Amino acid sequence: EKTDDYWVKLEGARRTCFRAVSIAGARDPVMIARVAGTLDAVRRQVMKLSRAAAGGGRVMFHVYGKNGVMGASEPEKSSKPHEIGIVIEALGNTQVQADMLCSLTRSTLLHYGYPGRISTAGNLAMLFSPSDIAMGAVYEFAVYHLMKLDDPAGFPLEIEKVAGGRRRA
Questions:
Q1: Burial group, residue 104, by CB count within 10 angstroms (0-12, 13-18, 19+)
Q2: CA angle, 117 as apex, 112 and 120 as ends, to 5°?
Q3: Which residues, other chains included, contact 26 with Cβ-Cβ below 8 Å and sequence gap of 6+?
Q4: HSE-up (13 A, CA, CB side) for residue 19
């Protein structure tokens, strides 16, 4: 909307935590059929083992090939994938904590004894070796505000012309 007032949009971000990820594939139809319950059980076991919940750590799973884009809103309920991709996302107050949570979660999921499991050697195909990837700091918007100024000169303005990569006076 047109206005006679002068407004400035302020935006800012803050670091919230650190992230580590691991990317794997699964092809066991027994695991795929009960993947949501298996991942929930693995998350609970990891949190119990690591005491990370008290320290601010979190583990999330992103399953691709089975509701990986739409999630619970997926309208096609009848399709049954023969393989899925699983991204393990671990968040911690430090990179060390995120790395530890990712490693523990990957290892727990790799050997988790879900009902009907056939293979005891491991249930995942890891995309990379080493399998865990430290992603660094995670940021979120912390300031998103419109500020009315009486005088646009409240913010100094300086214009420089640059030609051929050199500053011109």
A1: buried
A2: 65
A3: 32, 35, 83, 84, 86, 123, 124, 125
A4: 13
Per-residue pLDDT of the chain (169 residues), as tens digits, is 788 888 888 899 999 999 999 999 999 999 999 999 999 999 999 999 887 666 779 999 999 987 667 777 878 777 788 899 999 999 999 999 999 999 999 999 999 998 888 877 788 999 999 999 999 999 999 988 888 888 777 777 788 888 776 665 5
Query: Residue with structure tokens 């399998």?
Result: 131
Alpha-carbon span 169 to 160, nearest angstrom: 8
User: Quick one: which H or E segment has residue 57?
Assistant: none
The residue assigned the tokens 């699964």 is 26
What pTM was computed for the model?
0.78
Counting every residue written for the chain, the total comes to 169
Beta carbons within 10 angstroms of residue 148's beta carbon = 9
Query: Cis (ω within 30 of 0) for the bond into 75?
Result: no
Residue appearing with tokens 């009486």: 150
Q: Which two tokens stand for residue 104?
A: 């523990």
Answer for the pair 21, 103: CB distance below 8 angstroms, yes or no: no
Amino acid at 20: A
